Amino acid sequence: MKSVFHIIIGLFFSLLVSVLVTQNNINLFMGDADDFKKATIYFKQTTLESEADKFAQEKLQKVEKVKKISKEDAIQDFKNTFGDFSKNLSDLDTLTDLVPISYEVVFTNLDDRKQFIASEASNELVDEIVAVDQVFSRYTSLQKSLGAFTFTLFAISFLVCALLTSLLIKNMINNDQRQIEIYALFGQSYSAIVKKYFKNLLSFFVTTAVLSLVVVFVFFTIFKVKLHATPDLKFMAERLTFLSVSQFLILVLSFAVAYFGGLYIVLKRSVLKSFQR
Amino acid sequence: MSIIELSHVYKTYQNDRHALKNISFSADAGDFIFLTGHSGAGKSTLFKILSAQESATSGSVSVFGKNMTEYDYHNIHEYRRQIGIIFQDFKLIPEITNRTNLEIPLSVLGKSRKDIDAELMQIVDLVGIKHSYLDEYPESLSGGEQQKIAVARAIIHRPKIIFADEPTGNLDKAASLNILMILKELTKWQTTVLFATHDENLMSQVQGKVIHLKNGEIESARL
């Protein structure tokens, strides 16, 4: 019975880890919602670097992220992209003249981005503001729905896990009822019995959490390697992410609260039977 | 001062069945008391009250000078560690070996492995349990052998009071007499023994007080 209990709890924990990993990577399959909040501001050739910086300082205060691409950075990118061909394409002076200063910006939301483009596209310093076409915006809502779906799936799995764990613990303790009763009759204290179960189940909990994580990680790695081997999907493999340390800790802590909360309630009710008269 | 004192104790179950009616008696340290009566006379109920498995409906039960109502789930273990119980149905744990069953009263006291082993071998030899039985499970033993394990477990921690509910019911005459003599011997060290039986031959073997129960009442007493 106990080994079945161990396997079931292990499977539940693996399921929770898997749902969280899916939630982490769902964007890969639907594109990144942040893409719709991004825009690149290209300044005119005539705009001086100091003017571009002043513009950025004044107009880009309430945004999530700003990255300046100087002429030098842009030339380096150009060279990296075209390799030896870049030598034939232009000399450095020509390139410096051609390549504009730009700022990559991530706005806090789509509305902010739209408003910024509407107000600043005609600024005399700005040549062009490029953003992902809004035709894709319908994917944003689909992506949000998928995110909400995986979150709901996680919440439901979590509740089911917590409930079933409590039931399994109850069943296990009921099986031990006679043993608890006899130990109690020979002077085992209530707190010692409760502590004994907590101690046993703590070591089991830690082992299960670590083993489940390892199992899911192995499957995740196999999946990633297979994806990497497929040329068209290589980029996806590179962006697949496992659980972060904080995510794993939050998962373990919340599962531990449900697990030990259930254990305490069940233990208190079952063990007290052997102490009440 | 009496070590056990019962005064006008009643025990009534939910169906209004009176298991005990107006029980009063006392026992001193080192007393050996036979509790007799037919099945259903109230012997087991009395043991359950004295061993804190059940509480009296009314009346007062004091053991070691403390009223039993003062014990609750937080401190009842303090009382139970001072008593030894031999159950009619043995109450051995089938999933653990006889050795581990025997060790229960010592392990709950937090004794060291060395002390447990020493005391275990002493009691095993005293009660007459074969050493080879120790690493077997209770169900592989006969009723008589299981009873010996139950007796040994009840006395291994040298309790101040022993409640023995039909401790010789499954034993032959020689083994019964042996258990009786062991329990009687313990009274020399001021252990109080309450011994439930309806075997009159056995009662004639040792001197002791006698309380005879009938329909939950004390019909006669030789104290």
Residues in helices of chain A, as a percent range: over 70%
Strand content of chain A: 5-15%
The third-level CATH topology of chain B is Rossmann fold
How many structural domains of chain B? 1
Largest sheet of chain A: 4 strands, antiparallel
Please, how many domains of chain A?
Answer: 2
Radius of gyration computed on alpha carbons of chain B: 17 Å
- Number of helices, where a helix is a run of at least 4 consecutive DSSP H or I residues of chain B: 7
Q: Name the CATH architecture of chain B.
A: 3-Layer(aba) Sandwich
Output the strand order for the largest sheet of chain A: 2-3-1-4
Helix content of chain B: 25-40%
Protein chain pair with the most extensive contact, residues per chain = A-B, 18 and 23 residues
Can you describe what's shown?
The complex is a heterodimer of chains A (about 280) and B (about 220). Chain A is an alpha+beta fold and about 280 residues long. Chain A folds into two domains: about 1-30 and about 140-275, no CATH class; about 45-125, no CATH class. Helix content of chain A is about 70%, strand content about 10%. Chain A contains eleven helices and four strands. Chain A has helices spanning about 1-30, 50-60, 70-80, 85-90, 90-100, 110-120, 135-175, 175-185, 190-230, 235-240, 245-275, and strands at about 40-45, 65-70, 100-105, 125-130. Chain A has a four-stranded antiparallel beta sheet with strand order 2-3-1-4. In chain A, helix 1 (about 1-30) runs antiparallel to helix 11. The longest helix of chain A has about 40 residues, at about 190-230. Chain A is elongated. In chain B, a hairpin with a 2-residue loop joins strand 4 and strand 5 (about 65). Chain B has one domain (about 30-55, about 85-220): Rossmann fold, CATH 3.40.50.300. Chain B has seven helices and ten strands. Chain B has helices at about 45-50, 75-80, 100-110, 115-125, 145-155, 175-185, 200-205, and strands spanning about 5-10, 20-25, 30-35, 60-65, 65, 85, 160-165, 190-195, 210-215, 215-220. Chain B is α/β, with parallel strands linked by helices and about 220 residues long. Chain B has a six-stranded mixed beta sheet with strand order 6-7-8-3-9-10, sandwiched between helices. The radius of gyration of chain B is 17 Å and the shape is globular. The mean pLDDT of chain B is about 95. Chain B is about 30% helix and about 25% strand. The chains are: A alpha+beta (about 280), B alpha/beta (about 220). The interface between A and B is medium-sized, with 18 and 23 residues.
